[in-house]
Amino acid sequence: MRRTVELLWGQAMSDSVNGLELGLGVQPDLVYRTMLRRPRWRLSDLVRELGWDDGGTRDVVGALRAEGFVVSSADDPDAIRAVEPCVALPALAAKRMRGPTAGTCVPKAAAVERFVTWHERAAEWSGEHRHPGGLDEVAAVVERLVAGVMHEVTMLVPTYVPGSFEFATQVAEAVLRRGASFRAIWCAEFTMAPPVLAHARWLGQRGCAPRAAQVVPTRAVVMDGTVAVLLDDIEAPRVLRGARAVESLRKLASGLWATSVEVGEVARQARIDVPRQRYEVVLRLLAEGLTDDAVANRIGVSVRTVRNDVASAMAGLDARSRFQAGVRAAQLGLL
């Protein structure tokens, strides 16, 4: 099994996808690909695997962490893990397409699509032969699932675990970037912990303030009402598929949301204008079939502004037509 996974990874690494095409430098690219081979790494193990010195490895890991490719492990306080490419690469693309340096080192859409496909093929094959053995493995499964969400993600969180995906900004950003809604229902007993409050404020500023309930009876993630990850047993989490299989969890989530309240301080937080290119929204609405006029009415701007946004998106995506821009945005996971 391991040999097959390594062969798949080898093809991913040699399938004409290099670090520059992914928006990464040579060293960050190598470290990231290496980290994707295991659920978590201690720095000493990564140093040994790469054959690098401690300082150089630490610097590259720090750069990857700053770009959202690496986060702390939820299973080992001394370890780190790689964020799934289907979440990390679209976030990098969106970041590189905005701001004063817009268009610089934007990941190439086709390269991102190939890389994500090969990685997930290897991950799925490996997953068929073993069950996730901790929160880091579960996080990878959840990240791959939320990358394809269309409408809504609801998280039921009965307990706080530092580093858990339930409190990861990357997961919430991936959902919001796709135009879906993000709902989190936390058990009230841990909502005053400083890291939890900080995350609650972050969510509230983005229009998706979490709610607190006195009792959250199960730990789960419900996506679009048709897919769920049930974590009653971390050693053997279950992925449920189909509206019928997910129905009881969906009803539980809806009931808890209706009877819960916004986390204390968040209700008093003013929503901020989170930097995000309007053209991401414009592209999504155009992909849904809306005309320029309809998009302008929906977001409250002029038709001329919509057309300027489309032009900016085409430039950022290096696209020659609206159709090509839509294809590349989809390949990058921005739609």
From TrEMBL:
Annotated Gene3D superfamilies: Winged helix-like DNA-binding domain superfamily/Winged helix DNA-binding domain
Molecular function, one GO term: DNA binding
SUPFAM superfamilies, alphabetized: C-terminal effector domain of the bipartite response regulators
Keywords assigned by UniProt, alphabetized: DNA-binding, Transcription, Transcription regulation
GO BP terms, alphabetized: regulation of DNA-templated transcription
InterPro entries per UniProt: Sig_transdc_resp-reg_C-effctor, Tscrpt_reg_LuxR_C, WalR-like, WH-like_DNA-bd_sf
Keyword Transcription in annotation: yes
Domain HTH luxR-type: 265-333
Listed transmembrane segments: none
Top-level taxonomic group: Bacteria
Protein name: Response regulator transcription factor
Organism the protein comes from: Solihabitans fulvus
Organism ancestry: Bacteria, Bacillati, Actinomycetota, Actinomycetes, Pseudonocardiales
